[in-house]
Design goal:
Elements (H helix, E strand, L loop, with lengths): L3 H7 L4 H12 L2 H8 L3 H15 L4 E4 L2 E4 L1 H22 L12 E6 L1 H18 L4 E6 L2 H5 L1 H4 L5 E4 L10 E9 L1 E6 L12 H6 L1 E5 L11 H9 L4 E6 L15 E5 H11 L1 E5 L7 E8 L6 H15 L2
Parallel strand pairs: 3-4, 3-5, 8-9
Antiparallel strand pairs: 1-2, 5-12, 6-12, 7-10, 7-11
Helix pairs in contact: 2-3, 2-4, 2-5, 3-4, 6-12
Amino acid sequence: MARPSAVHLVNLDLNLLVVLRELLRERNVTRAAARLGVTQPAVSASLARLRRHFDDDLLVRSGNGYVLSPLAAQLTDQVEAICGATERLFGTGHDFEPGVSGREFTVFMADYTIEVLGSRLSALLAEQAPGVQLHVRLVREAFARDIGGTIRLIDGLVAPPASRFDLPDVRSVELFTERWVCVVDAANPHVTGDELSLAQLAEMTWVAPFQPDRGFAPAAPMSRQLVLFGIQPRIRVRVESYQAVPHFVAGTDRVALLQERLARRVAPRLGLRILPCPGDPEPIVERFWWHTDYDGDPSHRWFREVLVSLAAGI
């Protein structure tokens, strides 16, 4: 006799998962139908079935459009992960032809990585794999707490090495290296020379990315450097983005550590000075991480090679 969970799956139309994913993405029946290549009545009928199954409206009328119900918002990440894993499961073992494939790749990146690789990756996919879909999600702390489970449900992530990645089923390949620099406002009266000392950094106020509500997060890449320097920073601005950091340094007496490529792109526009980082900081090594389940997937192998090739050109 089949187990109850198997019986439950047999009685479900798993095509509804695909419809549900597009409805949650688009929050609009007409646009979801267009993305799926089916009629609007067909998607409306599927939405009705989904509403009966979950006993929830899922899409709730708000003004001239729709918003997600609390349950639908809760389902979003689960549906994305399940659909992505299903596509990879049934794509394994087949030859991959990027020029005609419609496969979707889901990748976690920091906004800094998007600044460095995003436009190159977008242009390459448009040229070599116009039907391939890319779902880029920003790295969050919640992901970091359960990397062992989450990384099986995505194609991978770009991040520096960390102890949480030391798992037997996680592999990685180096993409590129980067170094830290200090950024200050060009008119900062406390910075008159061409370099800063560790003593000066210890006295200045800071802008810091990815810090908790209270305390200090030494596991964050920038914070790790300050710990190695023996500095307990006086943080005045906390942001959830690397690209936001220089905006809260500009026009103030604050300081921040920033990746050099990002600093050089924004400094002229924001009126910032870039100074060498004292204390011989560790290099930033950006790697692509994935689960060993995808080692034999031809499409995944192609995507890894694309990332390595792009990174080699920067």
